[in-house]
Amino acid sequence: MKPDIIVVTAAYGHAQIAALGGQRALLPIIQQAGADGVEIRRELLDEAALADLPALAEAVAQHQLHASYSVPDTLFCDGGEINPRLTHYVKEARQLKAQRLKVALGAFSGVLPREPLQALLADLPFQLTVENDQTEHGRLAPSVAFFQAVSAADLPISMTFDMGNWCWTGEDADQAAQQLAAQVGYVHVKAAVPHQNSFRAIALDEADDHWRSLLQQLPGSVPRGIEFPLEGDDLVAVTRHYVSLLRNV
Length: 249
What we know:
- It is a single chain.
- This protein is an alpha/beta fold.
- 38% of the residues lie in helices and 24% in strands.
- It has 11 helices and 10 strands.
- The chain is globular.
């Protein structure tokens, strides 16, 4: 069975999204490109859109897509406690009728607060996924420790494995895949190259073939999100090219 392909709206760039009038304007492009879903980014929603997420959910459904919801915040606060804002994000994800809510890990203390997490996860109609971000908290060691604890506690939290973010943390993506593949429920497909004092994401056709071998180390049935730049005069054609590529790798 081929994996679902999700297009992350941020792949089109903030300036392009603003020029088109917001993330909702991307839905026909993503639908015509043959994708299965769209990842809505909270940081790209204006106040009006945040106040009317049910309307965005309806638009997503009208374009025969399903939604993922990405929030630029963490599961844990700096003191190691559960982020109190998560209940609000859960409400927003419900309004969006999302299939998953994605956050970063944050400052995991090494001790899993099982009861607060169970309360947060109770009766969720979607999957909670935790991504390896580009900060020290997204490094391999805390990610492995967290998902080992989640597995031991039998909590329904999966990993969003961002293929490119290991560049920012200076770690081996293949080693990360070997240690975390069993926990992966969603893949952010991304290739990156050095840029000034950091890295930048690049389109897969501009990258070497490492992304292919890395992707093949991860579960083949989980959704794959396009999170590298989608640019060109014909955004439908560019998006369709990568949707087809990722569906058949």
